[in-house]
Amino acid sequence: MLFLPGGDGDATTFDALLAHLPRVDAVVHDRRRAGDLPLTAHTDEVAATLTGGPATVVATSMGALIGLDLLARYPDRVGLLVAHEPPAVDLLPPAERADALARQEAVVATYAAHGADAGMRTLLTDIGVDLSDREPDAALPKLTAARLRNLDHLLRYDVTAAGRHRLDPAALAPVAERIVAAGGERSGGAYPYRCAVALAERLDLPFVLFPGGHTGYATHPRAFAGTLLEVLLQA
């Protein structure tokens, strides 16, 4: 199984989740941070690593956008894709799309004017994340120096790259049976959740609610793992 993180793209993103999936043979992609890369460059790098046959891909946020692009352009590399809240804003109705893009631009502007802490607070509010709402034993990732550098890259480049990316529903339609669209039970209707709903509606996909919000894999890892196993068993 291949896991594609959102957020800062760090390979440790899914550590809490994988602790509750001890029998899963998992590889976590650590997204390259090399300036203003288009999202498709990350897809190409992921595709180049998948040489052993179709993978089961579990992806969230920007990682889910990469997963969808991977399935659209390299369909032989993906057997099943669980796409958790991909911010595919181009799938939203015009007014909602404009609002989502404006929010992304505001995050980048806040970061530029006030730094990473202010930028992240704005981003987390916009995508429906409440880090205080979590399982009692769920410990959040520590903000190491490396992770802070990753967050800086997220706010400087990746938020914009995700907003610029355009999904290709026509390329996904022939392989839609391999996609599970997913959203967080506690995302509160934030725009990434609405994007996931729009994806399910556009491609006539099953829509699965996962525990927690946009970062449920970190805040509710035990329950998230349980739902993920149910999805995989039913696929």
TrEMBL record:
GO molecular function terms noted in the UniProt entry: hydrolase activity
Keyword 4Fe-4S attributed: no
AB hydrolase-1 domain ranges (all copies): 2-225
Pfam assignment, any one: Abhydrolase_6
UniProt entry keywords in alphabetical sequence: Hydrolase
InterPro entries from the UniProt entry: AB_hydrolase_1, AB_hydrolase_fold
The protein's name in its UniProt record: Alpha/beta hydrolase
Source organism of the structure: Spirilliplanes yamanashiensis
